[in-house]
Amino acid sequence: MAPFQAPAPSGAGDQIVEKSGIEIFQDEDIAKQVFHQGVVPDSLIDKSREEILVLRKRLVRKIDFRLMPMLVVLFLLNILDRNNFTNARLGGLEDDLNMDSHQYSTALMIMYVGYLIFQFPSNVILSKFPRPGIYLAVACCLWGTVSTSMAAVQSYSHVIVVRFFLGFVEAPFFPGALLMLTSWYVREELPLRIAVLYAGNTLSNCFGGLIAAGVIGGMDGVAGIASWRWLFIIEGCFTIGMSFVAYFVLPNYPADCKWLSEEERDYAIWRIADEAAGVDDGADGESIWAGGLKAIKDPKLYMLILIQMSLLVGMAYTYFFPSIVKTLGYSNVLTLLLTAPPYALAFFGSLGNSIHAGKTGERAFHIIVPLSISCLGNILCITLTNTAGRYVAMFLMTFGVYSAFNVTLSWVSSTMPRPKSKRAAALAMVNSLANCTHLFTSYLYPNSDKPRYMTAGITLACFCGLCALSSFALRTWLRRENQKLDRAEGFAKGDPEYVDGRRKGFRYMY
Question: Superkingdom of this entry's organism (predicted)?
């Protein structure tokens, strides 16, 4: 069998590199990857180009079918059990528990206290846990149980306790899911997969309103139970049931995966290591604390935190969206139905934006443009007075921030090189510190600011602008870093990726 060969880039000639005495052509068709010293396993060395291409397609297809559907469903349930509190507000939760607007905001906020406390320790555990699928499945069962218990609360103090522990048990999922994705997919594959994952968020907000409309409109008083309590019971019990499915479906990391063949497993490990210039993703042996120290010393981390924090402030309306839509003057059930279409648009917009970002390898402008749209939506929502205009503005608000969110997360992974410990720490820190914004954004929409919520609209518009400017600044920074790497490796400005049989090493995506 001929050794794995692929044509060199156009105009580069038949440049080759040697690997243990075997000539291996550079191959742009395989995600522009190259074999690095000490990485290529024996099962791949004798593969032809066509066989490697087939292997890659088969592997990615298997990963997509095994990993993505379950993660999307779990994320949908994660957000559903977090946001059903906002929908329950229209079902009479505040009145039944004698809560005022400030107490409602505090109940929203307290969940993120528990969320922030446990998120980084959770990633410490997950980064070394041999069965991450089991870890996330158990977390799912726990948050479903806590969410269901909200149906039994009888006072504001009960709500605070349940919401705090809900945040505590929900904390492991999102950073854990991102860590799993970055352990299976290479950089150009991540934007689309993160978009598909985050579709669970947009779909949750879309279907959450529809489910709440059905429950609140048709189950009030059934078995003597208020409709908003039924909302927690139904959604929480479904989450518990899905956690048992997740226990058997979610995979391990590639090195320990038994549902792949030996060559598929070797290729899955190799392509992740190859992307990082030969650094094996799972062989560094470092703890996440060592990775965290490396991440803290990397100044780019702080720009990524600023971008994510600004974006999450721009998304703060999400937890008040039913109340915002209610200012249009419709009934509770119709209001809940009207919350769905903006999230449906955001779902398709985020997928399209992420697919394009993945194909082009561009990040910054796939954040800047959507955030500009969201900024405009916030401005229109607080300045327009007619119902149709304000509802259209809500579409723009939602479309922009959700389209940008997926790209910012993939940017964190591609900007923080391996080892896995550093990437896990960076993802945890960015997500944790960014979520600190909920400690004040939970109070941006008091009832006294109805119907325009002027303060909130101005705040969200400003932070959308800050996120766009920060993204442009990081783009400029990373371009300069790539130029320094070119000079250090002896490449001239404008050189193609392959010159005289040499390939450029790691480069930042911007």
Answer: Eukaryota
| Tokens of residue 185, six digits | 């997919």
Residues 6+ apart with CB under 8 A from 399: 342, 345, 346, 349, 370, 373, 374, 377
Asked if residue 132 has a cis previous peptide bond (ω within 30° of 0), the answer is no
Please, are residues 116 and 436 in contact by the beta-carbon 8 Å criterion? yes
Three-state DSSP string of 78-96: HHHHHHHHHHHHCCCHHHH
pLDDT at 501: 64
Give the Å distances, CA to CA, from 310 to 110, 161, 471, 508.
20, 29, 10, 22
- Phi/psi class of residue 38: alpha, beta or left (left: φ > 0; alpha: ψ in -120 to 50)? left
Q: Give the integer Cα–Cα distance in Å for 134 and 445.
A: 38
pLDDT digits (tens, 9 = 90+) for 329-368: 899 889 989 999 999 999 888 888 888 887 888 889 999 9
| Residues linked to residue 503 through DSSP beta bridges, in sequence order | 498
Which range, of 69-83, 206-220, 419-433, 476-490, averages the lowest pLDDT? 419-433
Distance CA 353, CA 406 (A): 9
> Three-state secondary structure along 423-491?
HHHHHHHHHHHHHCCHHHHCCCCCHHHCCCCHHHHHHHHHHHHHHHHHHHHHHHHHHHHHHHHHHHCCC
- Beta bridge partners, 22, equal 19
Question: Which residue ranges form the domains of the chain, and what is each CATH number?
Answer: 49-488 (1.20.1250.20)
Could you report how far apart the first and last alpha carbons of the chain are, in Å? 40
**DSSP helix/strand/coil, 502:** strand
3-class DSSP state for residue 40? coil
pLDDT digits (tens, 9 = 90+) for 379-404: 999 999 899 999 999 999 999 998 89
